[in-house]
Amino acid sequence: MGGIARDGTSGVATTVVRRHERGSSEEKPVEATVLVIAWSSDEPARVGEVAVLPASGAPLILGRGPGATRERRVAFFRQRPGTLTERPPLEASAISRRQLRFYPEHDGPRVERIGQCDLELNGARCDAATLRPGDVLALSGELVLYCARRPALIPPSRLFTSKQWGAFGEPDSLGIIGESPALWRLREMLQFAARAEGHTLLLGQSGTGKELAARAIHQLSSRTGKFVSRNAATLPPGLIDAELFGNAKNYPNPGMAERPGLVGEASGGTLFLDEIGELSLELQAHLLRVLDAGEYQRLGDVLARRSTFCLVAATNRDPKLLKHDVLARFVGRVELPRLVDRREDAPLLARHLLLRAAERSPDLAGHFIGRTDSGYAYPRLDARLVVHLLQRSYTANVRELDALLWRSMAVSAGDHLELPPDCLEVRESRPPDAPPSAPPDATLPTPARAEATPEAIRSALARHEGRVADAARELGLSSRYALYRLVKKHGIDIDERP
Questions:
Q1: CA 399, CA 47: separation in Å to the nearest integer?
Q2: Quick one: 295 and 375 in the same domain?
Q3: Among 74, 204, 453, 491, whose CB has the most other CB atoms within 10 angstroms?
Q4: Is residue 150 within 8 Å of residue 32, measured between CB atoms?
C-alpha cells in the first residue's frame, strides 16, 4: 500500500491518500467527521464531494479560492473505494475567501463564521456551533454542506471493479445512484450474491430499490436466461401452482393453452418474487421442492421437469416471519440501506429523478433543469428544499423523494424548485442515538418579512452596485434566486439605479 501526505503549507488540510492494490494488507477503515457538498449554486457538479475534518491539529479555513501560503484550508475530494481524488478550491462567487473556521475539539468539530455570508445550522442562523453527524450547514443559499461520520477512506472494492463504477455522481453500470459508503457496500454485496449463484433474499423498506437490486444480481451473474418479475402478493391462493409451475395443454379444460409458469419461464435466468412475506406459510411450502433441486411438475403433466432458475425474493418484513425451511433455502441475504442511512445521496438522487422527469414530461419539469458552460445538467433547487431533503424522516425512501419533487414542481412558480408548504415543519435528521447539536452561539432570529417592494429592490441593488447576492441578503431573501424571481416579476433591470 502506497500513500502521499499533504501538509498545511500547500493550502490543503492534512490528508493521507492511500491507494490499495490487489494483495495489499487490509486495514480497518478509520472513521472521521466529514462535510459533504449537498448543493452549490455556482458549482452543481461538485455535489457529493467530501472534506475530512481532522480530530486534532490547527484550525481549518473554508472559503472561496486558494488561501494564504501557509494557511490550512478545507480540501474537498471525490471519495470512491480505495482512493481519494483531490478537487480544486471552491469557486462560489458569493462566499468569502475566509468564510468558515473549523476547530478540532474533543466533542466534535466547532464551526465559526468569519466571512460575509450568513451561516445557518439546521435552518437556524448562527455565528458558531459544535457539529454533530446529521447537521446541515447552509451559507446564504449559495452552498449546503452535510455533516456525516464515515470512513476517511472507503475500503477497496474486491468484486465491484472500477470499470463498473460510472462517472462520479452518475448511475453506475447497474443503474444504481449514490456515493455514500452504504451504497458502495451494497454494490459489493450484490456482486457477491450474483457470483454465489444461489437463491438470494433481499431485505428492505418500501422504496429502497429491491427490484433494481434484483435486476442487478441478474445482470452481474453468468445467467443468460430471462429476468422474470412477479409480486408474490398477487398470486391467487387457489392458483399458485398454476402460476408458478404452469399447466399442460388442454388442462384443466379442453382448449387450454400450454403455459410454462413463472419457474419454467425463468429457467436459465432469474425469477424475482417481490413481497414474498405476503404469502401464507402454507403457500410458501409450495416452493420447497423447486428451491432444492429445481424440480417441479406442471399441472396435468405426468413428467417432472427441471428449471435452472435462480430465485431472488424480497420482503419488507422480518425474515424470521418466513417459513423456516423456506428461509433456509436462501444462501444469500442482502439488506438494502434506507435513505435515512445515506442522506448525503438524496441530492444526487433528486438530480436523477428530475432529469428523468424532464425527459418524460419536458413541459412540466424541463424548466427546472439548468446546464453549466461545460454542458453538465443540474436541477435548479432552492436551498431550503435541499436542506429539507437532507433532514426529512423518510418512510418510503426514494419513492417518497420522487413524490416530494413532483409536489414541489406543482407549487413552484419560477424556474427553481421550492419547498412545498406541507413540508415547512422541521424534521430531525440525526440518528436516534446521536447527541443533539450544541446550542448555536449568537443565534440570530429570522423574522418573517413582507415581500420587498420594487423601490426597496432598486435601492438595495444600487447600494451593492448590482451584486445580487448581497442585495438579496439585505432584503432578507433566502437566496439570490429569490431576488431574481422578484426582479423578473416587477420588470426591474439589474443595472437600474434609483
A1: 21
A2: no
A3: 74
A4: yes
